[in-house]
Structures are given as structure tokens and as C-alpha cells.
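[step 3/7] fold_predict: job queued, chain A
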Amino acid sequence: MVAHVKSLGFASHNKDGKPITHIKEHIKYMEADLEHHQNKPELFNKDQDKVDRRDFFKKLNEQPKRGVVGHKLVISLSEDERLKYNTDLKELVRDTMNCFETKHNVKLDWIGAIHDDKGHPHAHIVIRGYNEDGKQVGMYPKHIKDLQLFADQEKERQFERHQELERDILKELNQEREAEAKKMPMSFLRLSIAKMNLALNDKE
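[step 4/7] structure written:
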């Protein structure tokens, strides 16, 4: 099994309807506390664990009124795979997006939210239609393929990092135990001397 990346399409001024409203409604859905969620979804981005959607809405309103308003993506894992790899979905989203930005030399403006649904843990992402340099963002099949590859690689790397951290913690605990064990004889010696001094004082 692998991490899956799927495009849910995009909203554009070139289409009929109200594209800005469409993206705003999708973002509201992303953070809605629905009954089937096992968590309370919160919006986050590359730097912040809590994002006010109104700040993102403001940027949507201020960007050029042409082309794409925003792209909608989902990154998902099977529940068994998430448990097996102990995957932090928020960390996975950030790592995946960072890899994509590095490869394509671009700084994207995006927000995400985790939906920890039973049997279907996943993360929703909205990428603003204009990047931080003010250029239009395209999201083509080749880009989804890149994101798919990065998501699966980062899932493995995250697992390896957690394994390494656990090994370091166990190593540190063992070193502390060994250090304490070496101190024990001296502690017993001090206690014995103290008892002897106390006995001598009692005799006097």
C-alpha cells in the first residue's frame, strides 16, 4: 500500500459560477466538525498549526480575478497503513509539499486540514491559484504524479525518523541505567559508613 494523492479539481474564473465562493465553501467544509470525524479538524499551513481561514480568504479576494482561484487535493492512507507506519498526517503533508516546492523551485500558498475518519484517514489541501511570487499555479497530471511519489517517500522517511528517535531514546535510557548501576556500590558504601559511625556514637 502507498500514500495516495488525488486531485479534486480546481475553481477558475474561466468557468461558470463563483469560483472564489466555491473555494471558500470547500475550506469551510475542511474545518467543519462533522459527526464522522474522529478529530476536530483545524486548518494549518507550512508554518502554523492553526490558521484563521479569514486570512486565507483575504488573499483569495486580493489575487488577480483571472485564471485559477485554487486547487483542491487529498492525501490519504489506509487505516492499517497509518497504524503500521505510525504516520503523522500533518507532518506528511508538510514534507510532501516541501519536496514539491524544492523540485519545482516555487513557493506555494496552501492550507490543509486532517480528517481522521475511521477507515479513511486523509488530509485535504487547498493551494491558492497564485504563488508567493504572484505567478499563476498550474497543477497538471505530472504534478500529481510528483506529489504521489513524494508522499510515499516521505511516509517511509517519517517512519525511519521515528524509529531512529526511539532507538536514541532507548540508548539514552540504557546509558542512564548503566550509570546508576555503577553508582550503586558507592552508595551502599556511604550508607554502611554512616551506619558504623552512628553505632560508634551510640556506644560513646
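[step 5/7] annotate
Residues 105 and 154 are 18 Å apart (CA to CA).
Residues 4-163 form a domain with the BirA Bifunctional Protein; domain 2 fold (CATH 3.30.930.30).
exit 0
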